[in-house]
Amino acid sequence: MYPISFGSDNHSGVHPNIMQAIIEANHGYAPAYGDDPLTHKALEKLQELFGGDCEAWFVLTGTGANVIALQSLISSWQAVICPASAHINVDECGALQKFTQARIQPVDTPDGKLKPEMIESRLQGNRDQHHSQIRMISISQSTEYGSLYTADEIRELAVFAHAHEMYLHIDGARMANAAAALNCSLASITKDAGADIISFGGTKNGLLFGEAIVSFRPELTQAMKYYRKQATQLYSKMRFISAQFLTYLQDDLWKSNAQHANRMCKYLEEQLAKKDNVTITMPAAVNALFCILPKAITPQLMEKYHFYLWNESRNEVRLMCGFYTKAEDVDTFVREI
To answer: Are 282 and 145 in contact (CB under 8 A)?
Structure first.
């Protein structure tokens, strides 16, 4: 256990309101597998938040949400193109390939963001029966580098995808942080921008467990519930996910948690920018900051504070803030440096 962690927004505990919601859901009986009043209400509210005319499902994990969302729209002979840094490519242990047998085609990017011109040359293989046919563009919002897509950039990718008979998927594990940073609605950077299917995170922003999949093409994702069951993501006591999401969505708790995490990361950036021996390499657009620390002191810092080396060759580290991060945590860490 670390008293202060900048390792991940997953390292924070559970928001008190969310924990209270779980406790309140723990009374009496309720039908299993999502056929309960809390789940019906939570899904209705979630679909409304994303602009309606969509369908949503709850799952247990972010990897599960990404795999099932992508599986519902691709076949084994097809491919998903994504940034090389994407979570589905780096941090999901080949789950997409295992469940779909489809291929991932990673693209190197300087900031974790894809652009149509990075994809276009790769589509030449779609003319040949010997090649996996690219069917899906997958992006992360915010990205693994903490960078952001504007609504217009997402729309440009969606238009490009649809013009080439592809779909656009968004890994939204930190979509709350992105919407808070852009000061926009969730619908404006998903449905309104032309995305076909997304995952929407909760665990990194105050939930105990639970993520959501939202499809803006429900006519194409009718088999989703079967994929969810096959992938062991159909939670029997669904009311405990739904109770969390109801509280998460109520009074925009999702947004206030994300705003706080973003604000703390900006404060961390401001304080570290004053240090001559620290170099900021990726500005804090959301709740992730990348910087180069002095090599001589990094091991000592890591004994007291949890954070990750991102690029060992130049001692670049990733520092994450969450809804639980406090200004005094930042001050203590900066003083230590």
So the answer is: yes
Tell me how far CA of residue 312 lies from CA of 98, 128, 140, 308, 315, in angstroms.
30, 40, 23, 10, 5
Residue 2 has pLDDT above 80, yes or no: no
Q: Is pLDDT above 80 for 223? A: yes
Residue 134 near residue 123, CB atoms below 8 Å: yes
Count up the domains in the chain and report the number.
2
Q: Quick one: 39 and 161 in the same domain?
A: yes
Average pLDDT over residues 286-298: 97
- CATH number, residue 181: 3.40.640.10
Q: Are strands 103-107 and 55-59 parallel, antiparallel or unpaired?
A: unpaired
Q: Which residues are CB-neighbours of 28 under 8 A, at least 6 positions away?
A: none
Range of the domain at 193: 16-251
DSSP per position, 224-261: HHHHHHHTT---TTTHHHHHHHHHHHGGGHHHHHHHHH
Return the structure tokens found at 170: 């968004």
Among the three residues 234, 251, 268, which one is the final residue of a domain in this structure? 251
Predicted local confidence at residue 314, as pLDDT: 95
Average pLDDT over residues 229-238: 97
111: burial class by Cβ within 10 Å (0-12, 13-18, 19+)? middle
So what's the pLDDT on residue 3?
A: 87
Report the distance separating Cα 244 and Cα 104, nearest Å. 33
